[in-house]
């Protein structure tokens, strides 16, 4: 964020008070802050009572070996039982768990809790037949269809940690995740619908399986395939199994066992500052407590009357906590939508809100900005008076987008909760409370009850109000990551070594004169593109793996729609000459193949040199200046200051691909 933008934050005068009705019956109240501060562990124990425990915990938190936390020590539970069975046992079997909406119009399915239970039990029996036992890892590479949720819950039921890989990631990305966590089963589909056309998934799985086989023969024993689109797919009888044959034929009876609160629930890979994605490990008890508590409290969920919709794909952590685990643990009725927002028309989301009378809606700033651009007349065609709480997540929301969201989508009635959290935190950490906070557009406001956050300087000292620094979390919380899969050292280094005794989030933040928090984006080499985390190093490695590339530097440049976008500066190998006329397209496609389409650089500049310090470090700050069309700052530390002139000139003449 520029200095000018920083200064503007402090001058934001607008405040949005909670509506009186909401405030009067709110789940979390102003007193909740005091209750949590007075007895933090007691407060979390109270939140843990939302779940059904097979064996109650003996100790809320064991923090005797930081940063390795154990929450609800000695407690035992089953996550799938908590999300499904107990609601059926409580008489809510006929309640709709998901209004599922396929992308092709009219392709919908309402799934009750009783039906969900039958399907999860069938899938659990099917996985058992495929040899899956507690502790085995299962990769899930699926579109947004009900079977994806069923697959996750079946894994949870068996105590087999799942790793969901976003369907937009490439075969290579899938293979590296399968290898890293040692998954023996991959659950996928023939394909899914995107923008009206069936897109394929199974061929990417086949390619990934071949890659995994070459590295670790015999690791992947089976691929379980849901038939979604009916397109032709290659089928290897030795490992491929159809879901509709195996799962549908399995028994709907399945008795689940309980697992230790610290039993791994899932691994979610996310980009870090080095090339290799990190496997964030979440465990059963603490994670589910965090997801359930925040979903209930931050959205003010009233399970009997609300219809809730989070637009995130389950391939990301937001989909895990706020499409699957939180909402189901709280017995919510949710919408789940398969496709893109503009298929077949740009009002599709609003049409869905009108049809299902959605009352709580959770999405990302990048989507909000896109709708702003498409124009007010599109949402105006739909009746969205059912909405009462709106949420935002994934990146800082610009005050203008916040106000537009509140007014145009929320009819000026709805509070907007700007929720800050991360894959690592498992659940929302900083947010206004919809029934309490006089919210400022663009600010995530305060740590929620139970969470202790602060902004510190380079020395780890708390900064005074009105100053900026690094965001840290000062006390452990139940849904915190427990480690990085197979890499305790990297876990300690990445999050716990920068400031002693504090969790370092990697984000910059500012406290305004009231002490409210404004998130300023990443302080490391992680970029945020449309709310998705991408590592500059990972994209650089992908570029350098292309035979024509000698060296590459990638920076995240500000982008009006996507927040940031990757801009690459590439030096070609001598033998590649000028690379040929299609070199930019070739490199962009290569990045899509290595990582996924979301990682494609928006611009690629072929350059002769990169700006380096005398010690050989690439000066990304200068490249960012170039990418954002700013005057280039101080170049005195450059080994060769003429390099920047050349790059600057090239940038001015290069066009967006
Ligand atoms: C950013 C997504 C500002 C932040 C849940 C964080 C935000 C990263 C917000 C985590 C917000 C997320 N305001 N920035 N409300 N929410 N971020 O792991 O930089 O995909 O570190 O988790 O997104 O991204 P992740």
What does this structure look like?
With 657 residues, the chain is of the alpha/beta class. Helices cover 33% and strands 23% of the residues. The two termini are 25 Å apart. The protein has 21 helices and 29 strands. The chain binds 5'-O-[(S)-ethoxy(hydroxy)phosphoryl]adenosine. 5'-O-[(S)-ethoxy(hydroxy)phosphoryl]adenosine (WTA) binds next to helix 12, strand 20, strand 23 and strand 24. 5'-O-[(S)-ethoxy(hydroxy)phosphoryl]adenosine (WTA) binds at residues 270, 317-318, 393-396, 418-423, 444, 505-507, 519, 521-522, 528, 533.
Class based on secondary structure composition and strand pairing: alpha/beta
Helix content: 25-40%
Q: Give the distinct bound molecules.
A: 5'-O-[(S)-ethoxy(hydroxy)phosphoryl]adenosine
- Looking at the chains present, what oligomeric state does this protein adopt? single chain
Shape: globular
What proportion of the residues form beta strands (DSSP E)? Answer: 15-25%
Q: What is the typical, i.e. mean, pLDDT?
A: 93
Low-confidence stretches: none
**Number of distinct beta strands:** 29
Strand order of the largest sheet: 5-4-17-16-18-19-20
- Main beta-sheet strand count, sense and barrel state: 7 strands, mixed
Q: How far do the termini sit from each other? A: 25 Å
Radius of gyration (Å): 24 Å
Question: How many helix segments?
Answer: 21
């Amino acid at each position: 964020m520029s200095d000018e933008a920083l200064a503007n934050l402090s001058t934001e005068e607008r405040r949005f008070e909670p509506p009186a009705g909401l405030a009067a019956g709110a789940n979390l109240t102003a007193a909740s802050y005091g209750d949590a501060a007075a007895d933090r562990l007691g407060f979390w124990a109270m939140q843990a009572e939302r779940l059904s425990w097979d064996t109650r915990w003996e100790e809320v938190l064991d923090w005797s070996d930081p940063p390795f936390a154990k929450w609800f020590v000695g407690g035992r539970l089953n996550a799938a039982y908590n999300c499904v069975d107990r609601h059926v046992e409580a008489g809510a079997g006929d309640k709709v768990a998901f209004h599922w909406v396929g992308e092709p119009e009219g392709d919908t399915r309402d799934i009750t809790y009783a039906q969900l239970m039958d399907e999860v039990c069938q899938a659990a029996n099917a996985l058992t037949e495929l040899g899956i036992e507690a502790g085995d890892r299962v990769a899930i590479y699926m579109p947004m269809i009900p079977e994806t949720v069923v697959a996750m819950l079946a894994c949870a039921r068996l105590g087999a940690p799942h790793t969901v890989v976003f369907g937009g990631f490439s075969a290579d990305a899938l293979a590296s995740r399968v290898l890293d966590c040692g998954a023996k089963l991959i659950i996928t589909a023939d394909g899914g619908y995107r923008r009206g056309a069936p897109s394929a998934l199974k061929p990417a799985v086949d390619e990934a399986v071949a890659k995994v086989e070459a590295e670790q023969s015999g690791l992947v024993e089976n691929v379980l395939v849901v038939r979604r689109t009916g397109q032709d797919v290659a089928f290897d009888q030795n490992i491929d199994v159809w879901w509709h044959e195996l799962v549908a034929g399995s028994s709907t009876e399945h008795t689940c066992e309980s697992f230790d609160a610290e039993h791994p629930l899932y691994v979610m890979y996310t980009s870090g500052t080095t090339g290799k994605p990190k496997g964030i490990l979440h465990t059963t008890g603490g994670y589910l407590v965090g997801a359930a508590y925040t979903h209930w409290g931050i959205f003010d969920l009233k399970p009997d009357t609300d219809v809730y919709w989070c637009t995130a794909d389950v391939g990301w952590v937001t989909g895990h906590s706020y499409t699957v685990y939180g909402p189901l643990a709280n017995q919510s009725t949710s919408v789940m939508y398969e496709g893109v927002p503009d298929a077949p028309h740009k009002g599709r989301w609003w049409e869905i809100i009108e049809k299902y009378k959605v009352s709580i809606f959770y999405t990302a700033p990048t989507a909000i900005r896109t709708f702003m651009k498409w124009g007010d007349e599109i949402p105006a065609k739909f009746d969205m008076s059912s909405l009462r709480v709106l949420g935002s997540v994934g990146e800082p929301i610009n005050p203008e987008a916040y106000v537009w969201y509140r007014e145009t989508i929320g009819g000026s009635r709805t509070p907007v909760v700007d929720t800050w959290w991360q894959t690592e935190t498992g659940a929302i950490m900083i947010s206004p409370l919809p029934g309490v906070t006089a919210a400022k557009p663009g600010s995530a406001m305060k740590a929620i009850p139970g969470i202790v956050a602060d902004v510190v300087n380079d020395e780890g000292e708390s900064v005074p109000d009105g100053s900026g620094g690094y965001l840290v979390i000062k006390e452990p919380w139940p849904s915190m990551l427990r480690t990085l899969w197979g890499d305790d050292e990297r876990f300690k280094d990445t999050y716990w070594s920068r400031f002693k005794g504090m969790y370092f989030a990697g984000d910059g933040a500012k406290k305004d004169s009231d002490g409210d928090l404004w998130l300023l984006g990443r302080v490391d080499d992680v970029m945020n593109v449309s709310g998705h985390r991408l590592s500059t190093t990972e994209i650089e490695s992908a570029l350098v793996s292309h035979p024509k590339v000698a060296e590459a530097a990638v920076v995240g440049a500000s982008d009006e729609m996507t927040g940031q976008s990757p801009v690459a500066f590439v030096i070609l190998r001598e033998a590649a000459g000028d690379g040929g006329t299609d070199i930019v397209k070739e490199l962009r496609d290569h990045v899509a193949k290595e990582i996924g389409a979301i990682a494609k650089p928006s611009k690629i500049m072929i350059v002769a040199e990169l700006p380096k310090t005398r010690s050989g470090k690439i000066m990304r700050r200068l490249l960012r200046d170039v990418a954002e069309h700013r005057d280039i700052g101080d170049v005195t530390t450059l080994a060769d200051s003429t390099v920047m002139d050349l790059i600057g000139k090239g940038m001015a003449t290069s066009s967006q691909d």
